[in-house]
Amino acid sequence: MAAKAEVVSWTEYPEDFSLLHQAQISSKTWIASNSLHDFSRRDGETAGLSLVPKLPDPSAGITHRNKADDGAKTSHFGPQRHRRVAANARERRRMHGLNKAFDELRSVIPSLENEKKLSKYDTLQMAQIYITELSELLAGVVRQDCEDTGDKGPRRSLLHPHHGPDCVQTGSAHSSDGESSHFSDLEESLTRTQ
DNA sequence: TAGGCCATCTGGTCCT
DNA sequence: AGGACCAGATGGCCTA
């Protein structure tokens, strides 16, 4: 199951527990209010990670409401609302897992000094370029090794495990003398995206 | 100030 | 039935 990669303890996301707990113990004030909007991530950050949902302030006028608030107000009550809140927490956890994966991917992609964080789209693009460059580089090394040893025996390819042996494979059209330009191309691509 | 990027909520759909 | 996944909507933050 994919969920295995996203297993996160409750202690890592205490807000999940707070939400559910709050929904259970004070569903009237929690569910019937528009506090979901108040309990946004940024509120948590700016308020010093105070993860206790704000109580509705009757004196405060409604300056803006989003669709989610409207939905929360009109679509679900009681147990339904409880399930929605739990689903929101799971979705938040899932997205955090996804973002963590993006961070790990960024950490293995070469980047320029003083470069700002790659966007998600750019991260995927750079990863694709980087993998291609590494594959072609490795293909060149393998070919060179085969030429040096004269080895033509069958060997399982590290680059393409389901393909034939490396040494009889023609591989990509790139020659090893172009390898140094691969990474400059990557760097150029990185620059272009900024 | 507009545009890009992001986090979050939400409802629908698929899967176990 | 419940969880995972997805896409749309919304609003906040940041930068040119």
TrEMBL record:
Keyword Disulfide bond among UniProt keywords: no
Sequence ranges assigned to domain BHLH in this UniProt record: 82-134
Bias-annotated ranges (Basic and acidic residues): 176-185
Compartments (UniProt record): Nucleus
GO molecular function: DNA-binding transcription factor activity, RNA polymerase II-specific; E-box binding; protein dimerization activity
Signal sequence extent: none
GO cellular component terms, semicolon-separated: nucleus
Domain of life of the organism encoding this protein: Eukaryota
GO biological process: axon development; positive regulation of transcription by RNA polymerase II; sensory organ development
CDD domains cross-referenced by the UniProt entry: bHLH_TS_ATOH1 (cd19713)
Main localization (coarse): nucleus
Residue ranges, annotated region (Disordered): 147-194
InterPro entries linked to this entry: ATOH1_bHLH, bHLH_dom, bHLH_transcription_factors, HLH_DNA-bd_sf
SMART domains the record matches: HLH (SM00353)
PROSITE patterns hit by this protein: BHLH (PS50888)
A Pfam family matched in the record: HLH
Keywords: Developmental protein, Differentiation, Neurogenesis, Nucleus, Transcription, Transcription regulation
PANTHER family: ATONAL BHLH TRANSCRIPTION FACTOR 1B, BASIC HELIX-LOOP-HELIX PROTEIN NEUROGENIN-RELATED
Protein name as catalogued: BHLH domain-containing protein
Organism of origin: Periophthalmus magnuspinnatus
